[in-house]
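Hello, quick one for you while I still have it in my head. No rush at all, and the record is pasted right below.
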Amino acid sequence: MASSQQALGAWVLIILYAALILFFVIRGALRTKSISEYALGTINFSPWFVGLSLAAAMTSAATFIINPGLIAAYGLSGFLSFGIFFPVAALISLIFLTKSFRKYGANVKALSLASWIGNRYNSKGYALFIALMSLLLLTFIVLILVAISKVLGQALNIAETKVLLFTVLFVFGYMMFGGANAMVYTNTVQAVIMVLVAVILLVSGYPYLKDGIPAFFERLAAINPDLVKPTNPTSPLFRDFFEIAFAQIVVGIAVVCQPHIITKSLLLKRESDVNKYLISATLIQGLFFLVVFAGFYARLTFPDMTVNGQPLGIDGVVSAYVVKVFSQGWVAIAVGLVIVLGLISAGLSTIEGLIQSLSTTITSDIVKPIFGKLIQNEDNYIIVNRIVIVLIAIAAYFASYQQIVSPNLSVAIFAQNGVYSFFSIAFVPIVFGIFLKEVKLSSALTGSLTAFGVYFFTYYLSPWLIVSKGISLGFFDHYFSGKVQNPAIAASFAIVISVVVSFIHYKISKSKTIK
């Protein structure tokens, strides 16, 4: 629990922060008159600002709050997974995919990822399918809401469920109006705060590191030898290098295929801005990914993963660490409050992008094709978009409440399940659409449907067959016989198999065309 001084300071800082966000939102709302302006903005943004915005949007509360908790619980194996293999793959993928996607997206004036795919394959039905699959991203919004609620609950000494309600009302309320015109600026402010906080968190463990890295890992090993091993057989996520390296590399490559990430480049007005955008995004994003190392500090601070005799859940480790370490003296309290602000920024920066992209997708690619005849005036779509945001808010609140009350290990599992399944489905149409010529709709759709089938068979049907029916599935038995399943396993299988199947289909269809 935070002290009265910490709680008072947190209230003051959060009120000022909220006022700053509302300033940018009101400023952006005055320039937002249509759904196109809400999605892409009307301002000629600096590529450096857009890059910072991407780094902030790509760095969710998972990176700053949830994943460090997993490293605290499972050690080096988790750091290799979330701090090395996943980030390297994601950043390389971002560089390769962005340029081609942005070029095509700008040419066809795509407002969303679904419309990009629909335009690329000249299929409104395909766009509708991808738009419906985009609803899976609601799970990521839930993760962020839970993480923010835990941080604010610790900082303000308020029940997490009450903080959740306030957070939903505030965030979804201002996102109804600002859109891209406001989001780039709010994301930039958030990114600057997050840079400061990332540095503070990384150096906050100096007392543990001052005797050298070997001594640091010896202290971790004294708590539990598994914490310093490259694999952790006792964990549900980092048992071997297939989970730690292969699955995370595949997921890292595909993670860029999310609407709030890959469509960010469409905010650039000139092709010459892309390199500047990528430089700022990758450098800052690389720093953010390293923050998970703070999970080691948290474990050394709470060796038995308890606070005052109460079990410390994985999702609450970072919040407890900040409150514990930065609680003595006004300087420490002030630094702690800045960290709280940074953790909140990590969540808001991503949730803003998710709300903007998801609401735009639903409005442009679901509501418009199905109910477009009933909406005569194009300007009315901005009103429809606001109604959509309200509906998303209601669904997100109830799902988040359930995850706070009774999570399955961590809300990260819930979120990964939705997000990983989505970008598994979207990966083939995006990558094939960017890098291959004359790709038919049938080849891309084959990839999406294959990924859909493989993912949900692997994640849902495999555990049922193995555990409930006692049927051995060989390789899968090791990963899907426990209480917690790793979504990265299902996603990596879905992505690899869908790429192989679609590429074979592409080659066969191309050879028939030549004949």
Remarks:
- The first strand starts at residue 306 and ends at 307.
- The radius of gyration is 22 Å.
